[in-house]
Amino acid sequence: MEDIDYVFLSHRHPDHVGLATTWRNGRWMPTFPRARYVVHPRERAYWTGLARDDPRCHPCIGDSILPLREAGCVSFAGGGERIGGVRLHEAPGHTPGLLLFEAAQGALWFLGDLLHHPAQAADPEWPSADFDFDRGGAIARRREFFARFADSQACLPASHTGGPFRIERTGPGKYFARPLGEYADKRRRAMTPVHPVESEARKNRACPCR
Predict the structure, then answer these.
(1) Considering the entire predicted model, what is its pTM?
(2) What's the CATH class of domain 6-185?
């Protein structure tokens, strides 16, 4: 735990900050005690400014966000800054201060919640359910970054897509999220139809009684 220098928080939704703190000695404390937790300042202003009775005021604010501030380990940063070899890019829409992280000189990007399903590459206007702070902004950011990534060969992990992919252009404003590596192999196996006769033959070979 003490070998970690930075924790990059794309935004402050509950599923992205849940491991930021750990319950120790009767209180919530930073999971990585030596790390700086990097987040956009608009995330702080938005989430800590919610009234307690606001339905968006999730318990994670008390157990995963405020303890970091109290520990003095938060670093606020915005687009264009480079921290620990990682370049930050702003993509407001899903939340006010969503950040994307570029590494390996652009060959690797961590997209956070820029999208929630690979199908959103085919149609960037498909919404992420009702989770977007600014739906129009989220659509605009997807269009902007998909156009940037198209045919770049960049490896693109995202939080909810099941594995890394790259973006390929299929038409004006349309893209395809092509899965990479083991993720691609799993997708291919899941989508490969099995002929009934072949399936029966497989069962017969697998059965030790035959």
Answers:
(1) 0.84
(2) alpha beta
